[in-house]
Amino acid sequence: MIADGNDRTESLTDQITLEPLLDRPLAAVGAAVTPTGVAFRVWAPNATDSVAVVIEGNGAREELRRAADGYWAGEVAGIGAGARYRYAIDGGDPLPDPASRFQPEGVHGPSAVVDPAGYTWQDGGWDGLSASTLSIYELHVGTMTPEGTYEALTAQLPALRDLGVTAIELMPLAESPGRWNWGYDGVDIWAPSHNYGTPDELRALVDAAHQHGLGVILDVVYNHFGPDGNYLRAFATDYFTDRHVTPWGDAVNYDGEHNRPVRDFIIGNAVHWITEYHIDGLRLDAVHAILDESPVHVIAEMAAAVRVAAAPRSVVFFAEDERNDVNVMRSPLEGGWGLDGLWADDFHHEMHVLLTGERDGYYGEYAGTPDSVARVIERGFTFQGQEFHGAPRGTEVTDEPGSAFVFCLQNHDQVGNRATGDRLHTQMSRERYHVASALFLLAPATPLIWMGQEFRASAPFQYFTDHEGELGRLVTEGRRREFSHFASFGTDTEVPDPQAESTFRDSTLDLIERETNADTYELYQDLLHLIRDDAVLAVRDRLSSVAVARDEVVMLYRTNGEQHRLLLANLGDEVRFPLQGLAEGVPDPPRGVKVLLDTGNERYGGVRTAAVAEGGARIPASTAVLLGW
């Protein structure tokens, strides 16, 4: 649904359909190689007299022609890929291209011409991703490997394939200030970070991933632009609007005066990741802060445009939305945005409270009991309109598939936004962590693994930036204040300085821990292969699943109508668990039921497995057992 100025909601189909928007070509921007040189096009309505392309090195200067709607365009002969340039507006200081495809010297340096056609792709047999069968591995390119490059990550693809995930999700790549950054301070959103390598090295990463059977999802930020190196206002003040306010300042102008070029800029950016880099899907950051009261929300228009551009390849769209709004994953014909699903953080929060007992901040709104964990597994969200921090939160979940809910035990936010970046598995025994991991991966949802959780990585993931001067000082001071509402992070807690190089370096994974912590790695590998290959578990059917709790045991039943799977996840002391009269809709396991997986197995570092007999099971403390018949 969409809201008008009087807070009424109307069906999207009552106002407008997407077809006219899809028939209208997006306005091309940036530098494009031609047979005779390079064509340039930039939206610069602020310019009153002139916009010139200034070529680095030889000092050549070419005046662009004024075009309609504030655009300026022209061609420079005799140059090609690799040429570096800036734009000078009304004779002012030369500035980087807002649609730069590469910033080899960072956000303040010249832009570089890139020719996507110069790369020869080898992924012609790749059909794309299906949202119904995803297992996602989220990572930060700069800290996944000691080298922190696209090339080094490419070398890790065979290991990620063998782990059993079906896609990697890259944290934002947009050019950001400094030598290290999470990526959410991006200002040159068309330019993949030079800190990780060249555009062609990113293409080679995606190409290799496809040849290993892995999709690539990219985290993108369309709710704000970073402050450092942001020259957009020099070209067009209408990139922003004061109609809305976000946590990061003025909102991007999706619905104010002269919004069409802004919408084209953002939608075109999404399309370019899919077409120029063969990216298989996008994770949209904080869509609750993408404020748009237009008849068709910019994200709905974007999703449709990207799917058309990608065809016949299949692409996926997921979003982060703290509102728990299922409308974003409903069809535009139903008033939705047409996305494939949402990050469902309620599962993480319920599990975190259950496993750690922490109740600071937003954790205080979650029960964190076996029963509440079972409910969120069945329902997708905890909050579906109930009060949260004094106001209703969430919408009712009806027939949305389990694959539409992205569950996690850890992700970059939930680890990195802790004071010291400590990981969940450092706060409990290995055995208890293994039970939680089985429950997480076997739930009828889309699982997202945060890099390193599959081998209990010892490295934290801390918040790091590399801003200059006053901005850097403010970030350091703000990080300390950020945890004032968490009682567990007292004044004596040492919060790593985001600006320190050591904070970035300390967050780098030690990949040898795949071997030293092989017990956890092999558990994750076995679970991921189960949910990929098992006839029941491969189908993320939430509606036919049953999850209930009995004391400290969470029971999860899944079926395809012919075969049955029953997970008993014991987070308490040893228990004798009856296998009769389990719950409504759950049949009694027959004699000879098979044990498909037991976290107490010595393969996973266990010393005692469950004993399953007719009518009941003895489950050791902190043990999960998966039964099948």
TrEMBL record:
<feature type="site" description="Transition state stabilizer">
    <location>
        <position position="413"/>
    </location>
</feature>
<feature type="active site" description="Proton donor">
    <location>
        <position position="320"/>
    </location>
</feature>
<dbReference type="Pfam" id="PF00128">
    <property type="entry name" value="Alpha-amylase"/>
</dbReference>
<dbReference type="GO" id="GO:0005737">
    <property type="term" value="C:cytoplasm"/>
</dbReference>
<keyword id="KW-0326">Glycosidase</keyword>
<dbReference type="InterPro" id="IPR006047">
    <property type="entry name" value="GH13_cat_dom"/>
</dbReference>
<keyword id="KW-0963">Cytoplasm</keyword>
<dbReference type="GO" id="GO:0005992">
    <property type="term" value="P:trehalose biosynthetic process"/>
</dbReference>
<comment type="pathway">
    <text>Glycan biosynthesis; trehalose biosynthesis.</text>
</comment>
<dbReference type="GO" id="GO:0033942">
    <property type="term" value="F:4-alpha-D-(1-&gt;4)-alpha-D-glucanotrehalose trehalohydrolase activity"/>
</dbReference>
<feature type="binding site">
    <location>
        <begin position="283"/>
        <end position="288"/>
    </location>
    <ligand>
        <name>substrate</name>
    </ligand>
</feature>
<feature type="binding site">
    <location>
        <begin position="345"/>
        <end position="349"/>
    </location>
    <ligand>
        <name>substrate</name>
    </ligand>
</feature>
<feature type="active site" description="Nucleophile">
    <location>
        <position position="285"/>
    </location>
</feature>
<dbReference type="InterPro" id="IPR012768">
    <property type="entry name" value="Trehalose_TreZ"/>
</dbReference>
<keyword id="KW-0119">Carbohydrate metabolism</keyword>
<protein>
    <recommendedName>
        <fullName>Malto-oligosyltrehalose trehalohydrolase</fullName>
        <ecNumber>3.2.1.141</ecNumber>
    </recommendedName>
</protein>
<dbReference type="InterPro" id="IPR014756">
    <property type="entry name" value="Ig_E-set"/>
</dbReference>
<feature type="domain" description="Glycosyl hydrolase family 13 catalytic">
    <location>
        <begin position="121"/>
        <end position="479"/>
    </location>
</feature>
<comment type="similarity">
    <text>Belongs to the glycosyl hydrolase 13 family.</text>
</comment>
<dbReference type="InterPro" id="IPR017853">
    <property type="entry name" value="GH"/>
</dbReference>
<dbReference type="InterPro" id="IPR044901">
    <property type="entry name" value="Trehalose_TreZ_E-set_sf"/>
</dbReference>
<feature type="binding site">
    <location>
        <begin position="412"/>
        <end position="417"/>
    </location>
    <ligand>
        <name>substrate</name>
    </ligand>
</feature>
<dbReference type="InterPro" id="IPR013783">
    <property type="entry name" value="Ig-like_fold"/>
</dbReference>
<dbReference type="InterPro" id="IPR004193">
    <property type="entry name" value="Glyco_hydro_13_N"/>
</dbReference>
<dbReference type="Pfam" id="PF02922">
    <property type="entry name" value="CBM_48"/>
</dbReference>
<keyword id="KW-0378">Hydrolase</keyword>
